[in-house]
Amino acid sequence: MKVIVHFTSTLQNRLRTGHFVKRRHFLTTPAVRIVEVGPRDGLQNELVTLSVQDRAQLIRMLTSAGCSYIEAGSFVSPKWVPQMADTEQVFQELIHLPRHTTLAALVPNLRGLEQALRCTRVDEIAIFAAASETFSQRNINCSIAESLERFRPVIETAAQHSWPVRGYVSCAIACPYEGTISSAQVAMVTRKLFEMGCYQVSLGDTIGVGTPFETKRLLQEFSGQEKKQIAVHFHDTYGQGLVNILVSLEQGITTIDSSVAGLGGCPYAKGASGNVATEDVVYMLHGMGIETGIDLTKLVGAAEFICALLGKPTRSKVGAAIAATRSI
Fold first, then answer.
1. Cα 170 from chain centroid?
2. What is the pLDDT of residue 68?
3. Average pLDDT for the chain
């Protein structure tokens, strides 16, 4: 019992202060930007469809925790993704949210962009392509080349409204249908998105099978300058999310996608579990002396809120550990 009490006291002190003692580490980056994708990529693959008010409250809590970039929803057909229905109303609920928080929306086409244009609180938009031809066909019913052409008018229209555009490349390491994907193929699609006007491209290990070796090999396809415009998006299906992020940091990546409570997955990739949990990422980064601007205690509170609504436990090991100390 004494050991448990000592651990609890130490953890509470670390959370209250700062989080963590600064340490000398082998990385040169002093800070990392966390892209919180829980309200979109997380919730879209959960069985429970939440109300507009609950989705908006989650985003407010994430903002209060210090999340400065949040994917708040997507303008896709509710027929295909019912969890993202009424996204326009969610943004309406957030019109008074502080402007230091960037709210992004995923749009699949011009129709989705037109919906986004009606929302005064949409700050950025995101588009998604794939590095796998089969995945592209199964996901959006067109080839990779056709998908990029579909996005061209979306990016051009967004530019006319001074909206930054962020891109995604799915299946950056492997595909549920084709298996391993060539790093050169991923780099080709990524560079096309850059050429079309995306200021950043997030590389997604959609089914979560990547290992540190494969992550390093992928990122070595890119120059140092290109890496400044690349983010990584790992799913934790095989428990490799954090180690893949560590390798990405070593490779010079400074933007990490993650999802509160490890929510989500991919509705088109059978067996793919949730995204790497934001709580776990923040705990690791703070322990390395890398700033995120996020309050871990408040973040865990947001995770507990959303998990209670979904009726499921958190997938975050850090969140579960902190919750356990509260019950002692």
1. 12
2. 97
3. 90
This prediction's pTM: 0.91
Q: What is the DSSP string of 16-85?
A: HH-S------S---SB-EEEE-IIIIIGGGSSSPPPHHHHHHHHHHHHHTT--EEEEEE---TTT-GGGT
Give the residue, 45 or 13, on which the prediction is more confident: 45
Half-sphere CA count of 323, side-chain side, radius 13 A? 19
Between strands 179-180 and 200-205, the pairing is unpaired
- Show which residues are catalytic: 266
Tokens of 55: 């989705």
- What residue segments make up the domains of the chain, in order of their start? 29-327
Sequence-ordered list of residues with C-beta below 8 angstroms from that of 172, at least 6 positions apart, any chain: 131, 181, 186, 203, 204, 205, 206, 210, 218
Amino acid at site 156: E
For residue 276, give the DSSP letter: P
Q: What pLDDT score does 1 carry?
A: 35
Compute the distance between CA of residue 128 and CA of residue 136 in angstroms, rounded to an integer: 10
DSSP per position, 138-180: HHHSS-HHHHHHHHHHHHHHHHHTT--EEEEEE-SSEETTTEE
In what helix (H) or strand (E) does residue 234 lie, and over which residues does it extend? strand 230-234
29-327 under CATH 3.20.20.70, yes or no: yes
